Amino acid sequence: IFILCPARLEVNKYFCRIQKSIHIMKQTLLALCSFITLLFGANSLHAVNIEKIAPTFWWAGMKNTELQILLYGKNIASSEVSLSGNQVILKEVVKQENPNYLLLYLDIAEAQAQTFQIVLKQGKKSTTIPYELKERERKGCDIQGFTASDVLYLIMPDRFANGNPDNDIVKGMREDKVDRNEQYARHGGDLKGIADHLDYIADLGVTAIWLNPTQENDMKEGSYHGYAITDYYQIDRRLGGNEDFKKLTEKAHEKGLKVVMDMIFNHCGSENYLFRDKPSKDWFNFRSEYVQTSFKTASVQDVHASEYERKIATDGWFTQSMPDLNQRNRHVARYLIQSSIWWIEYAGINGIRQDTHPYADFDFMSQWCKEVMEEYPHFNIVGETWLNSNVLVSFWQKDSKLAAPRNSNLPTVMDFPLQGLMNQAFDEETGEWSNGLYRLYDYLTQDLVYADPMHLLTFLDNHDTSRFYQTEEQTANITRYKQALAFLLTTRGIPQIYYGTEILMPGDKSKGDGFLRMDFPGGWPGDRTNCFTAEGRTALQNEAFDYTRKLLQWRKNNDVIGKGSLKHFSIASGTYVYERSYQGRSVVVIMNGTDQAQTLDLTPYKEILPRQEATDFLSGKQVKLVDKLALDKRETLILSF
Ligand code: CA
Fold it and tell me: What is the pLDDT confidence band of residue 289, given thresholds at 50, 70 and 90?
């Protein structure tokens, strides 16, 4: 029994109020804590410090419904992992030898776009990592890859134009100087520099740009070329970072230019965190001792090759600073595949050029191509297949009979043998059975070896070879240039032109690779000459530029060349004749491969000459096609019917 006296009641009320205040304070404190957690994410008030998340985000509604998330942070492996999200299922948590890694495998088949939480619990402390599944910006089938209707313009981003001198040096990065007089140093070119000159590129008439690697190369030296990636999800900040890459792609698309991104799955840079602090030893090949690749990748398909040679070729490191990734490790494989899909989805790129394709594991590369093409059915991938015969190159193309029952699934391979022949053919006198244009004819007669010869990448030179002109003196012979370009842009294949070719930039590999990658004149503030304008180019450069532009503009949207079949004739009177034809229209190319005037008997060509007169596209003159045709020395005719 208990009696309430008025005084007692007052005291009780007082305590109630205090309790209420404490409760409110507690609630406020809790809310504040949650707010701070939201604000600073994983990096505050918690046990676990996450240094890297790869991929940084992903998308809902992808064809492949599995997602690997790699988490990197000091001793995170002892965490208990849970997820809170809508229809996001944690299938598997994989620990590596190294306690600083956790690999999560998620099933997101039913998940909508959302931000879900990854919770890592260590004892009583827990860390919450928000992870975003974005809405897709486009359907996979909306991405159009590059085809034979395109011409690619290859650019080394450090060497084309410097659009933002402020990013030349980024504090904290290992190579922190710029020296334009030093061939292997960084020169300061960037993605904004390319974006600023898209009008020049589009006006030239190419329809796609292929950029040498743009992903982060935080290496002590030689980082300018980009082939030693230190973070697969980061565009090098000295080139402008991820935002500038996305902006450049969007701007290129607005101007009708496709974008091809260079990727490297065979190796990464030795400063990559995945190598510096390996998840497991088996993420890399030859982990106990340094073994360099022999570069003899023919051993991959050589029926007589020894296991020893095959292993050195594919598992050896590219250089000491480029350790060889083991794509047979399923986690490595998934990491690499996802990184490529991330870039396609993030930036909307139209194609990938895969570096050192035959150096990586065949089955992995095949699986990668298959998955990309399933996600993006109209996409295209070209592999760097630097092999010196058509038999060896053809092995790497999708549906190759020579590789069967295996299939690389790689739609486009690089025609290195033709590149070598083109660099001889236009310097020699053409014979009926040897030399000059005979080499090109002879090579193309063997196209049956290719599963799809129309989709080979064809080129006179690239960033790894001597340029078509090795010295400036050679550029005086502009006829050589004109014939080679006419051939490249009218024969079968997807042509690629290396930046600077249009202004006769020379480059000799024996002087060093850096000399093949000289700065485009006018790309840097204060450059004495500016070859982006007609006034800045010499008369000879303008002749080359105008000729290239004329051919490229004509080739653009010209289905006879882009989609047509090829019929050619054996050499007669030192002259090579071929026809491209598509839906009742045709183009006939007649090329005199000698330093003498020729009289060509037209009898063999009746089936490709529907009329007795035609206009030569190059000179504009009328050409009579009756009985015999007189050709000047090294003359090229392009006739449309
Ligand atoms: Ca710059």
Answer: confident
